Amino acid sequence: MIISEKLERLREMKPLVHNITNVVVTNFTANGLLALGASPVMAYAKEEVEEMASISGAVVLNIGTLNKEVIESMILAGKAANQKGVPVLLDPVGAGATRFRTDMANKILEEVQIDVIRGNAAEIANLLGIDWQIKGVDAGDGKVDAAEIALQAAQKWNCAAVVTGKNDAASDGKDTYLIQNGHPMMTQVTGTGCLLTSVIGAYCAVDSNHLEAAVAALTSYGIAAELAAEKTGEVGPGSFQIQFLNELANLTSEEIAQKAIFTKQQ
Amino acid sequence: MIISEKLERLREMKPLVHNITNVVVTNFTANGLLALGASPVMAYAKEEVEEMASISGAVVLNIGTLNKEVIESMILAGKAANQKGVPVLLDPVGAGATRFRTDMANKILEEVQIDVIRGNAAEIANLLGIDWQIKGVDAGDGKVDAAEIALQAAQKWNCAAVVTGKNDAASDGKDTYLIQNGHPMMTQVTGTGCLLTSVIGAYCAVDSNHLEAAVAALTSYGIAAELAAEKTGEVGPGSFQIQFLNELANLTSEEIAQKAIFTKQQ
Amino acid sequence: MIISEKLERLREMKPLVHNITNVVVTNFTANGLLALGASPVMAYAKEEVEEMASISGAVVLNIGTLNKEVIESMILAGKAANQKGVPVLLDPVGAGATRFRTDMANKILEEVQIDVIRGNAAEIANLLGIDWQIKGVDAGDGKVDAAEIALQAAQKWNCAAVVTGKNDAASDGKDTYLIQNGHPMMTQVTGTGCLLTSVIGAYCAVDSNHLEAAVAALTSYGIAAELAAEKTGEVGPGSFQIQFLNELANLTSEEIAQKAIFTKQQ
């Protein structure tokens, strides 16, 4: 898998990524996608989401501040994307924290064919019915490892599954990759997980192999975080957040080729 | 037109700018208006928008993440502002990208007397019925130039019209100005167009000549972007965004007098 | 009152703070809470707010961009928190600016037992029925001082009350403290008041004495602002905002012990 070329492709094609996401991360998501080289759009109204999804390169559904109306819009957008062959991503923020979040994430998974699901271990484990404590929207500790959860999720929903945390894993139900890029400072900035899902969406828009797209996204995103932390980690999370956007914009294929660390699980 | 004095007037009067805007740019819009010297308020509920609009110096309607309810609120706010003589601005984000956006922007234009419309060439052209491709909320390429579109828009809706992109133009249907301040880095930060519309609103709140207010806003805004890009353009879009807010706050009448570039079209 | 230890306790316990807040400040609030060491969650849907409030360390209700539906959710969340003994905070943004805001803030105060109310002098005075001019969401000038308003508010609603502005005061209806930390640059960044309310919530989550929690929050927050202004005050509000997040993360007990300025009113 030559992942360093995928970013160049993304920047050339500048795919439109349609986000139906939460109110906490909209600005950061838009700026992160712009920095990387994609073209973000946010559109939520049920009167327009099908049309917007149909012309997009990827559709990202994020339930972080869900309500019934936006879930309806997500299902409309997801179905329209399914019909057009546009990849659909799901970020089930806080699944397991409240019954409503678990139920709505499951409803989306039933009504829409999801191409990539991305969450922390607690969120994905809860949707798989594995017992796992979750505190608000933060993953707690659990017993099953990220790779195993990703594999099970990919098989259950017939999609690529990405589980992030201390260790990141991506699986398509057959092959599973472990990715070791990233930095703990990411946990001090809200929305780094949400933006990651949208970045995977941008890669999926230019790569029909969604597992490879996910690995490319995870490594490049993680490398940008490492570079940002090198320069600003000691200064604090405010500066890190800004430098992270800078690094997403400045990231080169050469840096990716040099710094990416991922292994296929045997 | 002596535009350098207008910023001083704005800072003295600190006008209240009532924004009904999209969820992507609310924070950036509020911080940008505060930095420049205006007083932002966001209020969306139909139970209060008329009252808030009535006490404001300008009302800015931005359809970036529209839904039916917020369009209702926009029309209520717009009509209340019309009655009180408070200038109303429209930013038809993504008009042309979906039928719903085009329809709702047209509905606002029918029901409210808009004082200034501001959009990219694609958005305004689409509302004028000129065939123009739009990709999400980004302007694509078209055949008619910005000044021509601004002129037509100003005449059609009997308002000032501002068309921004590689070239910026502002017209009141009689006189048309071309403005050359600004910097390409602005396209790498989400909401720079949206904030500009609100900044034009702040200038309109202290200047009954809306064309002059628009030219003053476009030049000062563009100069702040140039100054920010000088200092941070190489660093990346994260740093640029922050420095841009700094420059809006630090901008002086002298800098505006020295650096403003605008010409009246013959 | 030994306030310097309270921040350590907060960082150890990392309390979950459930915010139902306005769209302008969601990102800044989440990042500010994360920086300080708390765990933010935003959840608004009436189907889940009771469950989320029940597992939280504090619930923060902020009416900055209110609508009828979100007020319903706030009341549900507040009542659930009351039942579980979870502290509830109210930030009545813009109370007095429109009748709707005043009415809805009063409705919350009637239906929910609020543990801490935090606002500027105009907002709290208006809710108390004291005549006070308000311009949008900014406090104007009034005749009664902050300490007097805080005392009256605490007595009326049987809670701790925090009034912020040029001078900050906190009262539980018996004791009243004046706090002198802080910096004028805070008024140039949107949401510094809103984030403060959430930070008081984080302190209340680890301290059953809400007046002490408020004083600890006000001093530590103010000191972080002073440190940020020392380093970036001249640069501008963009840089200040970022440095403020850095300082919230880096603030130590020693700095608080050295720099905190508060006096009990005689």
UniProtKB/TrEMBL annotation, chains A, B, C:
Q: Tell me, which GO biological process terms does this entry list?
A: thiamine biosynthetic process; thiamine diphosphate biosynthetic process
Reactions this protein catalyses: 5-(2-hydroxyethyl)-4-methylthiazole + ATP = 4-methyl-5-(2-phosphooxyethyl)-thiazole + ADP + H(+)
Q: Where is substrate annotated to bind?
A: 42, 191
Q: Which InterPro entries match?
A: Hyethyz_kinase, Ribokinase-like
State the coiled-coil residue ranges: none
What Pfam families does the entry give?
HK
Q: Which Gene3D superfamilies match?
A: 3.40.1190.20
Kindly indicate whether the keyword Hydrolase belongs to this entry. Answer: no
Enzyme Commission code: 2.7.1.50
Is Magnesium set as a keyword in this record?
Answer: yes
Which Gene Ontology molecular function entries are recorded, alphabetically? ATP binding; hydroxyethylthiazole kinase activity; hydroxymethylpyrimidine kinase activity; magnesium ion binding; phosphomethylpyrimidine kinase activity
Q: Which UniProt keywords apply?
A: ATP-binding, Kinase, Magnesium, Metal-binding, Nucleotide-binding, Thiamine biosynthesis, Transferase
Q: Which cofactor does it need?
A: Mg(2+)
User: Which positions bind ATP?
Assistant: 118, 164
**What pathway annotation does it carry?**
Cofactor biosynthesis; thiamine diphosphate biosynthesis; 4-methyl-5-(2-phosphoethyl)-thiazole from 5-(2-hydroxyethyl)-4-methylthiazole: step 1/1
Annotated GO CC locations: cytosol
The protein's matches in HAMAP family, at most eight in alphabetical order, are given as: Thz_kinase (MF_00228)
The record's similarity note reads: Belongs to the Thz kinase family.
**PANTHER family for the chain:** HYDROXYMETHYLPYRIMIDINE_PHOSPHOMETHYLPYRIMIDINE KINASE THI20-RELATED (PTHR20858:SF17), PHOSPHOMETHYLPYRIMIDINE KINASE (PTHR20858)
Role this protein plays: Catalyzes the phosphorylation of the hydroxyl group of 4-methyl-5-beta-hydroxyethylthiazole (THZ).
Protein name, entry field: Hydroxyethylthiazole kinase
- What organism does the UniProt record list as the source? Falsibacillus pallidus
Query: Gene encoding this polypeptide?
Result: thiM
